[in-house]
Design brief:
The complex is a heterodimer of chains A (about 250) and B (about 300). With about 250 residues, chain A is mostly beta strands. Chain A has one helix at about 215-220, and strands at about 5, 10-15, 15-25, 25-35, 35-40, 50-55, 65-75, 80-90, 90-100, 105-110, 120, 130-135, 150-160, 165-170, 180, 185-190, 200, 225, 240-245. In chain B, β5 and β6 (about 155-160) form a beta hairpin. The chains are: A mainly beta (about 250), B alpha+beta (about 300).
Chain lengths: ~250, ~300
């Protein structure tokens, strides 16, 4: 389903129906998912429609830029250890309209097949609202439905001299780098800094040392997804990493 | 050069404290000018710092107070250079101050409360608050008063002294809040099934937070119903919409599953002691009469 389309077109997959048809010299965008229907008029010719995975923080409403992935089982990481694990994350599908050459992108619609749920990270008095996702921990890359779930390669690094017990990881949408092809993929890192604090971030920002050697392969074979949050970065000066100061 | 030195030493007038030279007057002018320039620079710097942090009206008032206050203090401090004794001025100013103080007690109180409100920041522009029985959005925090737009769209001006000294409930002070829904079901209904259905509905709602977790439980065995309570935490921006949505959704869902909310009801038993000499036929006739009288009473009431 992901890719570029020239109107008129119509596609249908996994219960999602997307079409752009010409009606009375106007283009009509129509999307149906279950009982949810979106219809928009497009005034302009020679436009592309791009369907791409986007940061999973736009549906049902954009209320937080943070994604909390809860592990199905608590993970214990030895002191000083560096390990790679695979998780899953929810996928949201963005529909964009653009001029030729993918210029002047405009978001038309966002939808998802994944479960939508929010949670609070930390206590009520100073916690942070996060989008919630529960994931299994895999030692090899899983093969989920790319329209519903993506694969996150997570590099864990325990910089302390004690065991670290990890049950969740929080990521900021600012800095998320999503790639897609036959799957949807993200590479992230989580550095345990002390008993209660960890830092999370995405590829090209903090991967160093031996982890760097893992980097380019997927990037060459997969296409880079369109980022909704990173496009806002010109206007919103924010940190690209997330400091988990309220436990992990 | 000599002419210049003579000019500075030249005394145009004398006071009880001694002669005042042109040099003293020049010093007075220079210090005053310098302090005006410095005050202007600091005011400009503060104006930039206040941008987006303090409301424009309040910021401008603070800046004016700072600017003129600095100049007045410097002016009084260097007044002896001109041969004038500021103690007389201070005495007169003191008396004037006391008179003005009494006259403008409330204004000064509001002003100082406004400054403390800006420092303590119990509320900020855009917050939803309840102050002295007024609920709404804070639209501006001024140096003397705070403006509230009520949920009905009315503008309410509350003096800062009242805001500062009263209880402020900031509805959006924390990222999440809890709300409660109450339901009563019939005694004949399965409360466990009702709890399961409600939990399932809550779980499907994206904005019903997973943590802190929601709770559904039997709260009371009431006169007419088994009373259930549902407690849900939601993001502060979404709780009101979620509350009204869930209230109706739960009601409909329970009814679809044959779990009903009973009306208040009371069972009344009439106990008649039969006359031992009455035959069963007489007894039946009496009972029919009683029922008829009750029905007639109902009719009378209705008409």
């Amino acid at each position: 389903m992901y890719g570029n389309y020239d109107p008129p077109f119509s596609i249908e997959k996994e219960g999602i129906s997307i079409s752009v048809e010409e009606l009375e010299k106007r283009w009509v965008y129509k999307r149906t998912l279950g009982t949810d229907t979106v219809e928009k008029l497009i005034l302009g010719d020679g436009k592309h429609i791009i369907i791409s995975p986007v940061e999973p923080l736009n549906t049902p409403k954009e209320i937080t830029p943070n994604l909390l992935i809860e592990f199905e089982k608590t993970l214990l990481l030895a002191a000083g250890a560096r390990k790679k694990i695979f998780l899953t994350f929810p996928v949201e599908i963005g529909v964009f309209i653009s001029d030729k050459g993918n210029k002047n992108l405009q978001l038309l619609d966002v939808l998802t097949l994944a479960r939508k749920k929010f949670t609070l990270y930390g206590p009520v008095s100073n916690g942070i609202i996060c989008k919630h996702w529960k994931s299994g921990i895999y030692s090899v890359s899983p093969s989920p439905n790319p329209l519903q779930e993506g694969i996150m390669e997570l590099f864990l690094r325990n910089t302390t001299s004690e065991w670290a017990s990890i049950s969740k990881a929080v990521f900021s949408a600012y800095g998320m780098k999503i790639f897609y092809d036959s799957d949807v993929f993200m590479r992230a890192h989580m550095d345990i800094l002390n008993k209660n604090t960890a830092e999370t971030g995405f590829e090209l920002q903090h991967i160093s040392g031996e982890l760097k050697s893992f980097r380019p392969k997927e990037q060459e074979t997969r296409k880079e997804a369109i980022e909704i949050y990173n496009r806002k970065l010109d206007f919103v000066p924010v940190s690209l990493t997330f400091d988990m100061r309220l436990g992990f | 050069m000599i002419t210049y030195i003579h000019f500075l030493d030249f005394s145009p007038y004398s006071t009880s404290n001694g002669p005042v030279t042109m040099g003293d007057l020049l010093k007075f002018v220079l210090i005053l000018s310098f302090s005006i320039i410095i005050s202007r620079i600091i005011t400009l710097y503060l104006r930039r710092s206040f941008k987006d942090k303090v409301s424009k009206d309040a910021g401008e008032t603070i800046l004016k107070l700072f600017y003129y206050g600095t100049i007045i203090i410097v002016f009084i401090a260097i007044l002896p250079l001109t041969g004038l004794d500021p103690s007389g001025l201070l005495l007169a100013g003191g008396i004037t101050g006391i008179v003005l103080g009494f006259a403008s007690q409330n204004i000064v109180g509001n002003l100082i409360s406004g400054v403390f409100l800006m420092i303590e920041k119990p509320l900020k522009i855009g917050d939803q608050v309840e102050i002295s029985g007024t609920s709404g959005f804070v639209t501006d925090i001024r140096i003397i008063s705070t403006l509230i737009r009520t949920y009905d769209g009315l503008l309410v001006r509350i003096p800062n002294q009242q805001v500062f000294t009263t209880n402020i409930t900031n509805v959006v002070g924390y990222p999440a809040r809890r709300f409660e829904l109450k339901f009563g079901i019939r005694y004949s209904d399965d409360a466990d099934a009702a709890i399961f259905l409600i939990k399932d509905l809550v779980d499907k709602e994206p904005f019903a937070l997973l943590n802190p977790d929601p709770s559904v439980f039997v709260n009371e065995l009431g006169e007419s119903s088994v009373d259930l309570i549902v407690r849900i935490w939601a993001p502060i921006s979404e709780w009101a919409a979620l509350k009204s949505k869930l209230l109706w959704a739960i009601k409909k869902n329970l009814e679809e599953n044959d779990i009903e909310m009973p009306f208040p009801q009371r069972l009344v038993y009439f106990h008649n002691v039969p006359d031992k000499n009455q035959t069963p036929e007489e007894l039946k006739q009496n009972q029919e009469k009683e029922i008829e009288s009750v029905l007639n009473y109902g009719e009378r009431v209705l008409t």
